[in-house]
Amino acid sequence: MTVTIARENAIAVVTVDNPPVNALSQALRQALVEAVAELDADAAVKAVVLICAGRTFIAGADVNEFGKPPQPPLLPDVVATIEGAKKPWVAAIHGSALGGGLEVALGCAYRVAVASASLGLPEVKLGIIPGAGGTVRLLRLIGSAAAVDLVTSGSPVGATKAEGLGLIDAIVDGDLRAGAIGFANGIAEKSLPQPISSRAVPAVEPGFWENAEKAVAAKAKREVAPLRALASVRKASETDFSDAMAFERETFLALRGSEQAAALRHVFFAERAAPRPPELAGITPRDIRSAAVVGGGTMGAGIAAALRDAGLPVVLIERDATAVERGLANIRAIYDGSVKRGRLTQEAADQRMAGVTGGDNYGLLADTDLVIEAVFEDLAVKRAVFEKLSSVCRPDAVLATNTSYLDPNAISEGVSHPERFLGLHFFSPAHVMKLLEIVLTEATSPEVLATGFALARQLGKIPVRAGICDGFIGNRILKVTRAQAERLLLSGATPSAIDAAMRAFGLPMGPFEAQDLGGLDIAAFQRKAARERGEIPFAPVAERLCALGRFGQKTGGGWYDYQPGDRAPKPSETVATVIAEEATGRPQHAWDEASIADAIILPMVNEATRILEERVALRSADIDLVKIHGYGFPRWRGGPMHYAEARGLAEVVAVLDRLAAEGLADPPCEGLRQAAQGDSFAAIAG
Ligand code: 3H9
What we know:
It is a single chain. The chain folds into 3 domains: 3-257, 2-enoyl-CoA Hydratase, Chain A, domain 1 (Alpha-Beta Complex), CATH 3.90.226; 288-466, Rossmann fold, CATH 3.40.50.720; 474-683, Orthogonal Bundle (N-(1-d-carboxylethyl)-l-norvaline Dehydrogenase, domain 2), CATH 1.10.1040.50. Helix content is 48%, strand content 11%. It contains 28 helices and 17 strands. The protein has an 8-stranded mixed β-sheet, with helices on both faces. α1 (26-40) packs parallel to α2 (75-83), α8 runs antiparallel to α9 (225-238) and α19 (495-505) packs across α24. The protein is globular and about 85 Å long. It catalyses: a (3S)-3-hydroxyacyl-CoA + NAD(+) = a 3-oxoacyl-CoA + NADH + H(+). It holds the Pfam family ECH_1.
């Protein structure tokens, strides 16, 4: 970390260089305080520019320091010192001014930024609130409504919007340093502006806070930080500066040590580690500049859109002209939807479509860098596709299957240069869902695996490496979720009680509502395939519902009944009768929300531990990312593995032992018992 001071005539330029993101470590905080003292004492200096080296302005407090007691100088004091400087400080922002970084900028007399910069207070995304005056100063600068928006959503705003809000004073065209020095020269002779801390609090309309509370509570659900952030902004509007600062700091410190903050920090670091697995360090991926998708159904169209969104030209291959037209229409429907929702301009949508070439001739793929197969889940069909690809594609083209349930080793039999083959398992809708399971076969080369990870970065996805087993990581755990849900049904819980318990746990939907939405036929098809492989899947009630033609919302009934045109699930007498028949002779239990959640989540953890033991996943944090980004597991719980560790693995083992004794779950696997001894999955994986 270095903080250097250069002089440009009467302007001092303080440059912070603390890679990678200029986070506010103790050393940086100390250096900033010293810089204020030095420049205050220098009569030749009329104004100060605060600028950062590297990719960004100060991106916030150093999250690595959050587990430790705060070391002086504390950030609120640093910001107060800058605000109290005798010379006007001008924050010169590029990249992101986030969290503590924006708080430092709010301590400055002025803020200027390049047009590409963004500014925000993302603390709620880490389960905390701003802790250095963000909630207290912001409303004095930009008004209560805009402050509430920024603080409770955690979403940053771009420089243009920031200028409109009054958050920055000017946008600098061209070189930031030169522009900021020019700006500083312009204000150097003026008297210092009133510090934000002593500006008046803007008035709000009656009912403003109550309405904001309702809106934030509805969105945050069980996440604690957004409402606490709102309370802090409200306090700032109702009391004096120093009381409001004390309230903010107290809330910040209390939340910093909370379970939700620990979980969200875990996810923050897991997401940043995911694209760069240590085992691929130093391996150069192949260049991907063009891509193709074989199969234009829902999945193929979504994958094509994801590739186009990343700027790659895409060829869509289907078996005949009619299917090509249908596939292109599926992609167009995705972009039409984005235009309708205001996410894309018509012009941008047209430009994305213009980059898709459809055809039924595999010869179009002769010079394509990457081909992703997304055809029907049938081994023979998929093999036939790869046979053709093997003969037309360049020998170094990467070939990928998007299979969910088939064995990629079997699919790749006969592929020429099998080291270039891998699984790229997208989640539906593929242009939206962040998760990408990257599945390696026995032959996949490290270079091709690295290409999968590089592609994920290009597409803005969260990549997780998965070994081969039925369902890979995510769907293998999903199978356990569903089997447990049925076990619960047979032992006295109703579908609506189970769904409600899982929503209360934090999932967006319970397992039965989710199946009704997606269709029960998909799982039925997979169970049929499993039976053909000699397995005995456990889904006695689902099997009977499928036999009755109850496939979910699309057939007017599944686990629930639906009225035409109404997606609200209604408890079904038919289903209750089937459950009662299947449950005959089985012991019945009284279930509450917590015990339902335990009987579903903890067996998932048990299965996930087996997945680690088998090295299908390499790290427990990877499993957390799979469940969060592919299946809606609540982020603030940190994923199932973090949840289990936070709860205590010894307790997890004890609950599973109890459930197993009653025939309600498998007993804990050896790996889980072993992990429980060290209370960490680190004992069996990273
Ligand atoms: C806060 O400020 C609280 C205050 O209100 C109160 C204090 C009293 N700390 O994302 P990237 C690392 S809360 C430590 O891949 P990009 C990251 O782990 C904080 N490390 O880069 C990674 O490490 P590695 C509020 C951090 O260019 C490397 O930097 N601020 C921090 O795609 C590169 O990260 C935030 O929440 C940090 N704060 O995106 C900002 N941030 O290379 C969070 C990053 O070893 N950060 N690292 O894997 C971001 O949103 C992005 O990093 C950013 C750059 C947009 C800045």
